[in-house]
Amino acid sequence: MHASFLSTPVADRVWRSKYRWQPPGQVAEPSIEASWDRVALAVSSVEPTQREVWRQRFRALLDGGLFLPGGRILARAGTAPAASLFNCFVQAPPEDSISGIFQALRETLVTLQAGGGVGIDLSTLRPVGDLAVRSNGKASGPVSWLAVWETASAVLEQGNLRRGALLAGLRCDHPDILAFIQAKAAPQVLPHFNLAVLLSDDFMHAVEEDAPWPLVFPLAGRSLAPGSEVCMRLWPGASGLQPCRVYGRVPARLLWESLTRAQHAAGEPGVLFVDRINRVNNLWFREQIGVTNPCGEVPLPPYGACNLGSLNLTRFVRHLYAEHPEPDLPGLRAATVVAVRFLDDVIDLSGFPLRPQERTALATRRIGLGVTGLADMLLMLGLRYGSPGSVELTARIMAVIRDAAYRSSIDNAAEKGGFPALDRTRLSASPFVLNLPHALQDAIARHGLRNSHLLAIAPAGSISLLAGNISPGIEPVLAFEGGRRLRGKDGSWQIVPVADAAWRQYRARVPAPTPLPAHFVQAADLGVEEQLRVVEAAQAAVDGGIAKTVQLPASATVAQVAQAVRRAWELGLKGCTVYRQGSRTDAPVGAGSTGPANGSPP
Fold first, then answer.
1. pLDDT digits over 439-464, tens only?
2. Could you confirm whether 244 is annotated as catalytic?
3. What percent of the chain has pLDDT over 70?
4. CATH code for the domain in which residue 50 is found
5. How many structural domains are present in the chain?
6. Structural domain of residue 486, as residue ranges?
7. 295 labelled catalytic
């Protein structure tokens, strides 16, 4: 156990309030080591053989925070047989009827109650003003239903420490898209929701060409007025191309400008580049993905689910205070192999809020292994975040993790069997698999994979605080010193002082007023290109998504926001969220920091 793991007040507070287990009528866990013991024992219990061997390996992985399981795993593994250990879910698009909408709402609330965040694509709901056939009334449109979800989530939250996290997505060609873009324009509106506009490549090209953009919705068997225009589209909730009525056209740049103005004003909606998400999906042959989980790191199909964990990169630096520190790539490779086995076992240990979620999870066995502490690792190695050296190292680290993760999944498939939905021929044609080393491609063709997807980089906010306030996920250091909003057991919020772990370690050796080295940068010191290049380097080795918010200064213009989103698309990212300093009042951070710890999808 690393002696300083809970040495900071914020780390101890996070453990006590979020992850420490107290059985009913019994004494609470006395230490973080007891929490590690509980988790390792529970996860290893599903191993068919050598359970004690795997318990020891899992315990060694957890020791000192080499690997930080997702919050649901750390809080609930070993506490109850049916406890859900999954953080991330996507709801099926609601059927366009009152009963369908409230069925989707019921399923969402059941999932939130179990501790999972939920993404949902509302593009299946007809636009405002459309005729409701059964009632002969007028449809209120998908934006109106956001308030219903919000109210229900707020009621459910009462008495619970964990805030319900929701993401709502809407296609860029839905007739109500402009209203959706403005849905969170006012402060404190829809606080449980992140919003995401689902942008297609065709739309991005239309913006470039200043072309008119059609707004459409499926006919779904309804009659068409004489002279109406019809086009064919793939649409969520339906298989194959669907005939759609064209409601009208707007200039693509007008829609784009409305979107980027909203992002400039309030940091929302984020965007998802859905064509790219589907094009590189390992299960392209059986899934159509519309949205992600609320933080954006896991694109998922209807009823999709994913459990998460992060490798703590600050624990993989050799010769930390010597003249030439270096990344511990062999150690990282070995930890990745065990972490993949751990997360795969979590699938069999976990309960699920809904039966369709369980069926989907067991059919695909998705996991989301990621990293946290990247920026702090770069500081420890003497590299400026976003510099060419840091980008090269990020690419190298993530390639090591990717290859070790896929090798582990292949070996686990040879031992335990591949995921049930596996089609080796079609999987081998996935663009992501085709970019793997040839030895891995050949091994997949022979043995298959245990997991359809293996990698996703989450915000890792709470677990990074638990690890001593290391830089979260692959974000830059938001601030060397500042405050973090934390919720107490009584439900109240407090600002807790925090200091970045790498900065704190450096200042312990080289106190102020000695100036910091030039490579010690915070988010406010970084340009858009520096931030996006790091994400680009990581995304090349990640088969899921990446939660990363592009941090902009308060002085950033609407045009600069637009350029950041466009640049994310040009670099091949799966989405983009921007945060202009001071544009949101609900960020879970306090003075001295530069933005929300997790926002809309990256």
1. 999 999 999 999 999 999 999 999 99
2. no
3. 94
4. 3.20.70.20
5. 1
6. 1-602
7. yes
